[in-house]
Design brief:
alpha+beta
């Protein structure tokens, strides 16, 4: 089997791979304009490879942008761990309605030093289960860790720091 790559002249990207049986002439199978773009290649050459100075190579990996890293992290949620309070460890949502409800509850707790609705234990549904908050201080500690984690991602995305925030986030 013979292999040929259809290479774009600029920037030298392989558009497609053509396979023809041995002994068959390319010009008997394809139009001359197409044949003029074909370059003999190895069987393992792939669409998207780069052709430069007579050599095929895989394209350079482009690292994901800081913004896309942040979006992926936010979608996955923030994992909070704690040695001193292991019952608070969970994966918490940091987007949309769950995060807004957490912020609203934190505002209520900060204002009235109690959970809303007169509850003594606040059951909070996380991305990985339910966490029971027995104290407003514990709840505010988790909200603070999540807020710091979000702020760390925003600063990283804005190139104000070189590294994204630690994951998992540690509750002390």
């Amino acid at each position: 089997m013979q292999y040929f790559a259809d290479v774009q002249t600029t920037p030298g990207v392989v558009r497609e791979i053509v396979q023809i049986p041995d002994g068959i002439n390319l010009s008997d199978c394809f139009h001359g304009d197409f044949v003029s773009r074909l370059v003999p290649c190895a069987a393992d050459t792939k669409q998207g490879d780069i052709y430069s100075n007579g050599v095929f190579s895989a394209p350079a990996l482009v690292p994901p942008s800081r913004e896309s890293q942040m979006a992926e992290a936010f979608a996955a949620g923030c994992v909070v761990t704690s040695i001193t309070k292991p019952t608070l460890a969970s994966r918490y949502a940091v987007l949309g309605d769950p995060w807004q409800r957490m912020r609203d509850e934190a505002q209520y707790v900060a204002t009235f030093q109690a959970f809303s609705g007169g509850v003594i234990i606040l059951e909070w549904t996380t991305l990985s289960g339910v966490v029971d908050f027995n104290s407003t201080a514990d709840f505010l500690s988790v909200v603070r860790v999540l807020g710091d984690w979000i702020t760390g991602w925003i600063r990283y995305s804005a190139e104000q720091t070189n590294n994204p925030p630690a994951s998992p986030a540690e509750l002390i």
